[in-house]
Amino acid sequence: MAKLNAENREEFPEKIGTKEARKMKARRDKNKGIWLGLGMMGMIGWSVAIPTLIGVAIGIWMDIRYPGQISWTLTFLSIGLAVGCVNAWYWVEREREKIEGSQSDE
Fold this sequence. Notes:
Elements: H1 6-28, H2 30-65, H3 72-105
Helix pairs in contact: 1-2, 2-3
């Protein structure tokens, strides 16, 4: 077993207190975590699906209206998917910052 030097003795109670606060918060928010996770998956799914479907609809309209050598449907599908992925990344980053902010407040 490692010996505690003076520096570790001062940090030890802080580490224990932080871990205990985190455990108590996790126990309080146990059910919330499940619903938060499911809600986040739904939010990410819709934030990708909606722009993709809008892109497909615009592409189909463009293919009917302005037929040509390129497929407008595939072009706007790709654009919609890219916009949706950026949108999902934005939501995940925002939620990550909220979580990190709540952990630093403890």
